[in-house]
Amino acid sequence: MSQVSIVIPTLNEAASLERTLRQLTLLNPPAKEVIVVDGGSEDETIAIAKQNFELFLPQTHTQVIFCQRRGRSIQMNYGASYTTGEMVCFLHADTLVPDDLVTIINTTLAERKVACGGFISLMSGAQTTRWGISLHNYLKTYYAPLLFKPHLFFRGLRLLFGDQVIFCRRIDFWDCGGFDEELPIMEDGDLCLKIIKKGRISLVNRIVQSSDRRVARWGSWKATVVYLYIGILWGIGVDANYLKKFYQDIR
User: CB-side exposure of 7: number of CA atoms within 13 Å?
Assistant: First the structure.
């Protein structure tokens, strides 16, 4: 039986969630459970989650839980506290995964020296694929830790972000303290810095597809500049609460 639990934080994700959940119904083998953690959506997010959960195979336990405090770190920790699988996978509501996701996670974490993994994120929308930004995000997985934490890079540190669908063993996640709930952004990078103590971080040579909604709103050049600016400042130790003002929520 699958031991992979999938946690999806949501806040007003009606435009994206249905497609993501329908893709999860195709998982073979299925996940052990899929948990949507809502932070107080004011659109049809909850109704869409419940409606699509009816399509899941009996082997997959599904539930919608409500988190009294908003924030991706807070909601993901809250969702993880409900999981029962040996492995937990954090999935954004606007990201599509391959149908062999569970097998990939099991295979990757079967190597005991690997503590955490993620995928190559291909950013795309209805009309275009953002090849340039997707390539930069792929390279950033390697060059960011090499520049800012070279001693950890050679121990296996790779910098993963949420749209890369981070997964790890549940016991390692909690041993590291989970996501830092004080961080409004960069909670995923912070987790990487903590979980490297448990083992290498693996970038799986497979693709997940993430929404380009932020780039579509900003434009490619502005998005690239913002991503670089935030990444560099975070890398040299600037407070993530300051950096959040450059990274507004876009639905």
Answer: 28
Backbone phi, then psi, for 108, in 5-degree steps?
-65, -45
Task: Domain of residue 53: give its range.
Answer: 4-246
User: pTM value?
Assistant: 0.93
CA pair distance 73, 166, nearest whole angstrom: 13
Q: Which CATH number covers residue 11?
A: 3.90.550.10
For residues 6 and 200, what is the distance between their CA atoms, to the nearest angstrom?
21
Characterize the bridge pairing of strands 200-211 and 167-169. Answer: unpaired
Question: What is d(CA 238, CA 186) in angstroms, rounded to the nearest whole number?
Answer: 11
Interval 57-96: pLDDT, tens? 888 999 999 999 999 999 999 999 999 999 999 999 999 9
